[in-house]
Amino acid sequence: MLHDGKSRRVAIIGGIRIPFCRAHSVYTETSNQDMMTATLSGMVKKFDLKGQTLGDVALGAVIKHSKDWNLARESVIGSGLSLKTPGVDMQRACGTSIEACIHIGNKIALGQIDAGIAGGTDSISDAPIVFDDRLREILLASSRGRSFMQKLSPWFRLRPSFLAPQLPSVVEPRTHLSMGESMEKTAKEFEVSREHQDQLALSSHIKAAAAYDAGFFDDLVIPYKDAEEDNNIRRDSTFEKLQSLKPVFDKKTGAGSLTAGNSTPLTDGAAAVLLASEEWAAKKNLPVVAYLTYCKVAAVNFIGDDGLLMAPAYAVSDMLKDANLSLQDFDFYEIHEAFAAQAIATIKAWQSEQFCRERLGRNAAMGPIDLSKLNVKGGSIAIGHPFAATGARVISTMAKLLNENGGGRGLVSVCTAGGMGVTAILESP
Fold it and tell me: Where are the beta strands (DSSP E) in 18-170?
C-alpha cells in the first residue's frame, strides 16, 4: 500500500474460514493442506471463482511438515481455482496471514496483479515429530552407503536414547522461555491483575457466543468435518470458574496470573481473505466491504529490555504516525488475545506517558481506547488461535464489521513469536 497518490486502492472482498477447533479434537487426523484446501474451496464457492485464474495466492503455516514445502500451491491445485493460479508459502509466526495480506495487497497496489488470496493454516494435532539428530545422522549415513556393509555399519552406533522424540514447542531459542513464561514477566512489569485478565477472557467467550447466535459468522465460517462453529467457546463460562483455575506458567513464585482460561488454547484451523483492485471487483460484480490502507511490522529487543509480545505497541504507534491518526480515531479494534495479559499490557503501554516517551519516541501518552469497541465479536481466547490463520480471521472480521457499520475505520494488531508485531488499518468504502 504505497501512499504516493498513484498506487491503486486495495479492496477487501471478503473472507472465509473453517471452524477453529481445539487441538486433538475434531481435526485430529486432518493436515494443514486438508484444512487450507477446504478453506480455499469455500472461498471459490462463496465468490464464484471456480476455474478462474487469480494473480497470486499467499499462504502459510507455522508448524509444518517437510512434505508441506509447497503448501500454498498444492492447496490451490485442490481448491477449484484454475491451475494457472500460482501460490507462494510465507511465514511470520502468528502474523503470517496478515503478512500474506500485505504481500498480496502491495502487488495489487502496484498493478502487478488484479486479485489474490491471502491466508494461513495450522495444525497442532498433526504436528511433525522430530527425532534426535544422532538418529538422523545414522539414517543419512546409511542412505549414503553403497554396499550392504556401508549401509549397515552406521546402525551399530544406535542407542535407545536416540529414539526419544523432540516435540514441537513455542520456546524461544534465545531466552529458553515459553510464550507464557515470557508473558508472565510482562504482566508483572505492567501490573496486569489476574482479575482483569479473567474479565477479558470471560468477555471474549460471551461476545463470541453472541456473535454466533446473531448469525454474524454465517457467511464467514463454513462447516468442516463435524464442526459448525469454533469448539473452544465456553457458553457456560463464569468469572468464578475462571478465577478457580491455577496459574500454568509461573507455579513456583506464587505470583503467577496466566491460566489456561485467560490464555489462547492450542488450536487447529485455517482462514483466508480475498483482496482485489476496485476495477476487478466491479468487473466481477463483487462488492467491496473494506479497504486495506496502512500496514506496519515491528520488532523489539525481547532478549533485553522489551517484553516478547509487546512489538504491536511499537508497530501501531509508527503506523499511526504514517497515517496521521490518533489511537482514538477508530470505530473498532481487533487486538489478538494471545493472552489476556498481552492485550491488556499493550493497551496500558499506550496509556503510559513514560512508555510512550521513552520507548515510542512520542511527546505524550497515546491514550486509552474505548473498550466497547474492542474484539466485539470475540477474540482469540474464545475463538482459538491456529497460529498462521488468526491474521486472516481478524482481517475478515474487521472488514465485515466496517461494512455492517456503514462506515468507519478499524485497527488490527497481532503479536508474534520472536518479538515481532504485525498491524494494519482497514477503512470502509
Answer: 21-22, 56-59, 87-89, 115-122, 130-131, 165-166
- 253 pLDDT band (50/70/90 cuts)? confident
d(CA 427, CA 429): 7
Could you give the CA distance from residue 377 to residue 404 in angstroms, rounded to a whole number? 13
Q: Choosing from 21, 101, 295, 415, which is the catalytic residue?
A: 415
**pLDDT by residue (tens digit) across 306-319?**
999 999 999 999 99
Residue 392 near residue 272 (C-beta atoms within 8 A):
yes
Q: Could you tell me if 310 and 153 are in contact, meaning their C-beta atoms sit under 8 angstroms apart? A: no
Instruction: Please name every residue paired with 21 in a beta bridge, in sequence order, or none if there are none.
Output: 268
Predicted TM-score (pTM) of this structure? 0.94
User: Using CA atoms, how far apart are residues 352 and 191, in angstroms rounded to an integer?
Assistant: 12
Nearest to 272 by CA among 124, 79, 420, 139: 79
Which member of 101, 205, 356, 385 is catalytic? 385
Per DSSP (E only), the strands in 300-418 are 332-335, 409-416
The set of cell numbers assigned to 67 is 512434505
**Is 101 part of the annotated catalytic residue set?**
no
356 as an active site residue: the answer is no
Q: Give the distance, in angstroms, between the CA of residue 327 and the centroid of all CA atoms in the same chain.
A: 22
Look up residue 387 and give its DSSP letter. Answer: G
Distance in angstroms (rounded) separating the CA atoms of residues 333 and 316: 11
* Res 166: pLDDT: 80
Quote the pLDDT of residue 250.
87
Cα separation, 223 vs 213, whole angstroms: 15
CA angle 314–316–320, rounded 5-degree value: 120
Q: What is the pLDDT of residues 193-247, one digit of tens each?
A: 999 999 999 999 999 999 999 999 999 999 999 999 999 999 999 999 999 999 9
CB 116 within 8 A of CB 267: no
List domains and CATH numbers for the chain.
130-166 (no CATH), 179-215+293-427 (3.40.47.10)
Give the pLDDT score at 305. 86
Res. 2 pLDDT band, cuts 50 70 90: low
- Asked if 17 and 392 touch (Cβ cutoff 8 Å), the reply is yes
Q: Estimate the share of the chain in helix, then strand, then coil, as percent rounded to the nearest 5.
A: 40, 20, 45
- Whole-angstrom Cα distance, residue 321 to residue 82? 41
Give the pLDDT score at 1. 63
94 is catalytic: yes
Catalytic residue chosen out of the listed positions 94, 101, 295, 356: 94
